[in-house]
Design a protein that fits this description.
The chain is α/β, with parallel strands linked by helices. The chain contains 13 helices and 11 strands. The chain has helices at about 5-10, 25-40, 50-60, 75-90, 95-100, 105-115, 130-140, 180-200, 220-235, 245-250, 250-260, 275-290, 315-330, and strands at about 15-20, 40-45, 65-70, 120, 150-155, 165-170, 205-210, 240-245, 270, 295-300, 305. Strands 8-7-9-6-5-10 form a 6-stranded mixed β-sheet, with helices on both faces. It has a 5-stranded parallel β-sheet with strand order 3-2-1-4-11, sandwiched between helices. The protein is globular and about 65 Å long.
Length: about 325
């Protein structure tokens, strides 16, 4: 069974409700049809029902009895506006601003999650990461004990002997542009937890660089060395090593030569990149050249499950992220 099918089977054990605020995007509607057909979550679409159902019909998409909520005439809109105002008035938000914001599908959906009327939210096919995460942080806040919200891609590489049978987490590949050593250590720790939650196997974390064990020296490599040290201090039991080049992190034969004595032994399954540029380029290379499944950017550190999407995603990608979000909601 494939990784994503295993996630869907786990989602079926405790059905969760996931909000999709991009109801006018055909990919979202196609994903809704997939979820309804496979029955691993309940979906709520945010949009004008008549227009959404017309769009679905024109594209031969069957939505069945999927719940569609229009913020412009929902009986909940006034309540949500008041709750949003109460949440944000200390930050200067006025009642009028709150009333306007809840008409936005992402804000409306986020209020549903905040008030436990849905379990999670997936957006980003037609919105920027900022447009998804800003309301998440304003309304849901960070999870208890979390110092940093970060994003990762769950990569499933076909016919791959590396990682966990080809399954990896790449982080941060979607949010933090230039993390310092402290931030990088938090990304590593959060990513290890995400891997174990979603994959169910022990996390083996590689702190990546263009250098292995001091083969080069720069501000960038020293940052990774310091971040690795911080991770070991914070979570002594975690299998983590760095700084490591990619080949020394995932190929045992190379690790034996370049990083002899590494606790990872060339078997890393969580790859922590030194900056967003490396992480984003890395995941896209693997996705396109190795034909890997790339789920994300998935978020970690938010109080409730909210996940972003790449704007280049397809409907199957969205359906997969919905399943992942549902599983995260079970654990939440």
């Amino acid at each position: 069974m494939s990784f994503i099918n295993e996630i869907k089977e786990r989602a079926k054990k405790e059905i969760k409700t996931i909000v999709l605020p991009e109801a006018t995007d055909i990919r979202t509607l196609e994903a809704t049809q997939i979820v309804n057909s496979e029955k691993y979550a309940k979906v709520i679409l945010i949009g004008e029902e008549e227009a959404v159902r017309k769009l679905a019909k024109e594209n031969e998409i069957e939505l069945g009895d999927t719940k569609i909520i229009n913020p412009a005439n929902s009986e909940k809109t006034k309540e949500y506006a008041q709750k949003l105002y109460e949440l944000r008035k200390a930050k200067g938000m006025t009642e009028e601003q709150a009333q306007k914001l809840v008409l936005d599908p992402v804000y409306f959906g986020m209020m549903m999650v905040k008030l436990d009327e849905a379990d999670g939210l997936v957006s980003g096919a037609a919105h920027s990461t900022a447009d998804t995460l800003r309301p998440a942080l304003q309304i849901l806040k960070t999870a208890p004990g979390t110092k940093l919200v970060s994003a990762f891609f769950l990569m499933v590489v076909p016919n791959c002997e590396y990682g966990e049978n080809g399954t990896f987490i790449f982080a941060d590949s979607g949010l933090n542009e230039e993390p310092n050593a402290e931030a990088l250590s938090e990304i590593a720790i959060s990513s290890s937890k995400s891997f174990e939650q979603l994959v169910g196997k022990q996390a083996k974390v590689a702190m990546l660089s263009y250098s292995t064990y001091g083969s080069a020296h720069s501000q960038s490599t020293e940052k990774v060395v310091e971040a690795t040290k911080l991770v070991k201090e914070k979570v002594p039991e975690l299998l983590v090593d760095g700084e490591l080049q990619l080949d020394a992190a995932i190929i045992p034969e190379v690790a034996e030569f370049k990083a002899k004595g590494s606790v990872l032994k060339g078997m890393a399954n969580v790859l922590v990149f030194p900056d967003l540029g490396a992480g984003n380029i890395g995941y896209k290379l693997v996705q396109r050249l190795a034909k890997a499944e790339a789920y994300g950017p998935l978020c970690q550190g938010i109080a409730k499950p909210v996940n972003d999407l790449s704007r280049g995603c397809n409907s199957k990608d969205i359906a997969g992220v919905i399943a992942i979000t549902a599983v995260q909601a079970q654990k939440n």
